Amino acid sequence: MRILVITLLYAPDGGPSATLYQTLCEGLARRGHAVTMIAAVPHYPSGRVPPDFRGRWITRTVENSVTVIRVRLPSLNRARFSRRLIQFFVYQIGAAVAGWRGRYDAAILGNPALEIYLPALVHVGLRRIPALYSIHDVYPDVGVALGIFRNRLVRGMVGALEKHLYHLSKGIRLTSESFAPPLLRAGIPQVKMSLIYDWVDTEALQPRPRQNDFSAEHGLNDSFVALYAGNIGLSQRLETILAAAVLLPAVQFVFVGEGTGRDSLQRAAAGLPNVRILPFQPRERLPEVLATADVHLISLKAGLESGSLPSKTYSAFASGRPLLAIMAAGAAWGVIERAGAGVRCDPDDAPCLAAQLEALRADPLRRADMGRAGRAAAEKYHSAAAAVVAFEAALQRIILSRLRRGEGDL
Predict the structure, then answer these.
(1) Distance separating alpha carbons of residues 347 and 236, to the nearest angstrom
(2) How many beta carbons lie within 10 A of that of residue 351, not counting itself?
(3) Which of 91, 97, 238, 275 would bridge 40 by S-S if both were Cys, CB 3.0 to 4.6 A apart?
(4) How confident is the model over 15-61, as pLDDT tens digits?
(5) Are 36 and 104 in contact, with CB atoms under 8 Å apart?
(6) Are strands 66-71 and 34-40 parallel, antiparallel or unpaired?
(7) pLDDT beyond 80 at 89
(8) How many Cβ atoms sit within 10 Å of the Cβ of residue 338?
């Protein structure tokens, strides 16, 4: 198949979806497909574009057999939503133009529509390329819960864009069963939906020794470490972790990442000697970063538990460490619970978090059992190889569906 992929972030950019799409594209290429990715130049999470990517408006490279087209963006501070919208708009203009000359059998679109609507309209709508719309978060629900979409008109516009791409796409990929009800309410038939969980490179991310170069470098070899590794943004309730840190001075709470909430987290953590906030680490260091955890912290604000599923969950699974989910019961917790890989507290319950951490600290055998269960779940349900095969099958279905409906050859 000749596959076009349209999504904002692609490695070496930051953010979990960047590496997810790199793994997917390279996996599809290894299976003999011709894959073209149209993404923005690296800019996430700060919005600042590295000097090496400030050249031509549109660049084309071949990376591990994947044709990667990158659209240059203005270098802006992403902390303000209005500036993110500027970057989205510039990307969409370039992405609509960039892939026009190529011929494709199918497309993969990564939501939200707010980021990719125009190129989707051009390549899928005008060129009639059958598309699989990959939903990572349910919009506008997630934006409403985060307080981003306060204006009714904005909410309506974001919802209308999403709904149009639901109908325009021949198939829809869900990362969670809980994403189906809002789509059904929008009039999308169940037959269009495919459940494909997010994935992790289980070959690259293996359980590693607890004491390693990263833990030694930061003086963590002899500490009990509760690790939060990932985006520090609007969708987490990280204040609860800081409140638990006050109750547990013997535990080292380590945050590794960047995002719009990093500065406020640093201010809130001032004066807490058992809290470290470290910058985003190079991808090659991720295995030892994850191995430094005795317990991984996975956090979601209340209201997001059914419309968002943190992909960092699967990296924690692969690392062979237990998870402490700071979230309401819902789809995200269900993934961890079914795996038998962790425990849960409500998003605002710092005493529960402190108690659960203290119990896990006192029970290394239980931690080991949970870690093995998470690793087994990563290998069985969330491997990159399984995801590539599932995407391949979903793309083949939408191509056959189009042909059966008499829409002609591509």
Answers:
(1) 9
(2) 12
(3) 91
(4) 778 989 999 999 999 999 999 999 999 988 788 888 888 888 999 99
(5) yes
(6) parallel
(7) yes
(8) 11
